[in-house]
Amino acid sequence: MVSSELLKTLGLTTCALPHSYHVQWFNNSSKAKVTQTSCVHFSIGSYHDYADFDVVPMQACSLLLGYLWKYDNDVVHHGIQNRYTFMHRGKNIALLPLTPAKIVQCGKELAEKKKEWTCYRF
């Protein structure tokens, strides 16, 4: 799932979903109707990919890789280490959790980017 706010900010296009559905935990209202999808290019460290994401009004994060992404990429979750591993284009990829210091740093960088995005909206 991808945040509708992120799509607006980046100017990405959406398409109608063939069958809409409702989600309940992404915002403060009782439920939100999901009616659109968007193809989003993303990167996590050295891993670069794209996928179709359903568009939702969520405040928790900008992009949520879910069960279908894990299934399509044959991802293995190593629970104790909280690490995900998979093959991508013949290369082993390991997604590791951020350290507490890195989480704080990323939060500050994201806040600065949001300020920049707000300044350049038309």
What does this structure look like?
With 122 residues, the chain is of the alpha+beta class. The protein contains 3 helices and 7 strands. The strands form 2 sheets. Strands 1-4-3-2 form a 4-stranded mixed sheet. Strands 5-6-7 form a 3-stranded antiparallel sheet, with no helix packed on it.
List the helices and strands and how they pair.
Layout: E1 2-3, H1 4-10, E2 15-23, E3 32-44, E4 47-56, H2 67-72, E5 76-78, E6 83-88, E7 91-95, H3 100-119
Parallel strand pairs: 1-4
Antiparallel strand pairs: 2-3, 3-4, 5-6, 6-7
Question: What key phrases describe this protein's structure?
Answer:
single chain; 122 residues; alpha+beta; three-stranded antiparallel sheet; 3 helices; globular
In short:
This protein has 122 residues and is of the alpha+beta class.
**Total domain count:** 1
Q: Order of helices and strands, N to C?
A: EHEEEHEEEH
The computed structural class is alpha+beta
**Low confidence ranges:** 118-122
Name the average pLDDT.
83
The protein's oligomeric status is: single chain
Strand order of the largest sheet: 1-4-3-2
Fraction of residues in helix: 25-40%
Distance between the termini: 25 Å
